[in-house]
Design goal:
The chain has about 400 residues and is an alpha/beta fold. The chain is about 40% helix and about 10% strand. The strands form three sheets. Strands 4-3-2-5-1-6-11 form a seven-stranded mixed sheet. The longest helix is centred in the N-terminal third of the chain and has 22 residues. The chain starts with a helix and ends in a 9-residue tail after the last helix. About 45% of the residues are buried. The model has no long low-confidence stretch (mean pLDDT about 90).
Length: about 400
């Protein structure tokens, strides 16, 4: 999220510190798994693709509570960024389907670094290990006392207390972001804020866990689906769920996120002159056709439009795709989740059922409320009225032509 030269420096420091943690700090069991396995050792992957602010964090959080799944903590973009598989290597977040100039062995191992298996009892050591492997990506410019942090966390000291002792604001973590920060959080990080912690029902991987289904989601995947299918996971059974959300609600969520001191910054693309935004960094995904000038609300429309257009165009790379509406996730969560489980070949899960009945609140920008976008209806409707034919085509293909259904 800094200049190209500065980003390269941060990646080098993050790689150095992460390598040290991988060799010396995390538990012996985790070191053994990372030495012998890669992400493509899983027999099957359930991949959720959506536009940013499309509800994928909620659906992902529910599904990662299934006791036959494994998952990362949140999105995996940070590992692609660590390997420079992002802007400015590419002009946008699009990775060409035939791009093969990357270290698949190391990337495959790094993507596995924080994966855990879901089990009701969970495992405190796994949560500590996951915190440690991600700290260099969250704070690459700081030399942190990793062994001291590990000891404190293993002793049961809460993460937010450890962060405060290191003069780090817990507001940078989704788990503790109960309010907007009083000022911008800064930009020298590889992992996108807000940072997501491991849930309490995960444990370290074992050899037989690779027979489970790995659940993955990152909004940036909308622009790299054929590459994931053809290059990253060519031999893996990948099941794709396309999660949609009406343009007004998504655009409204994006507009909120850009203007909050909560994080969501991704790239330094140079000086920004966007009406409605006074920050200095790009937020969320970087779609083809991005611009540094104009109205923020139009950028939010572009981010929704391009993400779903690319997902729709990538369908042929997969044997089958299940399309799910986030509106249905909100109004009939059990039925939608059951549909996804059947599509992915997953059975019942008591732990997941409990989470469906009482889902966590994750990655929210404002208090959830139906049709909250109508609070700025004139602004949103204005940008939709200016949209070109591509917008109309995508809206029709996604089945959002009836505005009365935009909740």
């Amino acid at each position: 999220m800094v200049s190209s030269e500065g980003s390269s420096r941060l990646r080098e420091r993050a790689r150095r510190n992460y390598g040290y943690i991988e060799r010396e700090v995390i538990s012996e069991g985790k070191r053994s798994v990372l030495s012998n396995h890669r992400i493509d050792d899983f027999d099957s992957v359930l991949l959720i693709a959506s536009a940013p602010r499309g509800g994928s964090s909620l659906l992902f959080d529910v599904l990662r509570h299934h006791e036959r799944t494994c998952s990362l903590d949140g999105e995996h973009d940070r590992w692609f960024m660590l390997h420079d598989l992002c802007y400015p290597t590419f002009e946008s977040d699009v990775i060409p389907a035939d791009f093969d100039s990357f270290d698949g062995e190391t990337l495959g191992r790094d993507l596995l670094a924080e994966v855990g298996a879901t089990e009701r009892a969970g495992e405190h050591t796994h949560r500590v290990d996951n915190t440690l492997v991600r700290l260099p990506l969250q704070f690459p410019d700081r030399e942190l006392p990793y062994e001291w942090i590990r000891d404190r966390l293993l002793d049961g000291v809460p993460l937010d207390e450890v962060l405060r002792e290191l003069d780090i604001s817990p507001l940078q973590y989704d788990e503790y972001a109960t309010r907007d920060a009083p000022h911008p959080l800064g930009n020298e990080t590889i992992e996108d804020r807000p940072f997501v912690s491991s849930h309490d029902h995960k444990r370290a991987l074992r050899e037989d866990d690779f027979e489970r289904t790995l659940v993955l989601k990152a909004s940036g995947d909308a622009y790299r689906l054929p590459w994931i299918r053809n290059q990253l996971l060519p031999e893996t059974d990948v099941t794709l769920v396309h999660l949609t959300r009406n343009p007004a609600a998504s655009i409204n969520g994006l507009y909120d996120g850009w203007r909050l001191n909560r994080g969501f910054q991704t790239y330094d693309v140079g000086d920004l002159d966007l009406e409605g935004y006074d920050g200095s960094l790009w937020c969320y995904d970087l779609p083809p056709g991005w611009t540094t000038e104009g109205d923020l609300i139009d950028v939010c429309l572009l981010q929704w439009l391009q993400a779903h257009r690319h997902i729709l165009d990538a369908r042929d790379a997969f044997d089958d795709v299940l399309r799910v509406r986030f509106e249905d996730v909100l109004t009939d969560t059990p039925s939608v989740v059951q549909e996804v489980l059947e599509f992915a070949g997953l059975g019942e899960s008591a732990l997941l059922s409990e989470n469906v009945d009482d889902p966590n609140e994750v990655m929210t920008t404002k208090e959830p409320r139906r049709a909250r976008w109508r609070d700025r209806e004139d602004l949103i409707q204005g940008t939709l009225d200016r949209a070109d034919g591509t917008y109309s085509e995508v809206v029709e293909r996604l089945g959002y032509t009836a505005e009365s259904e935009w909740i």
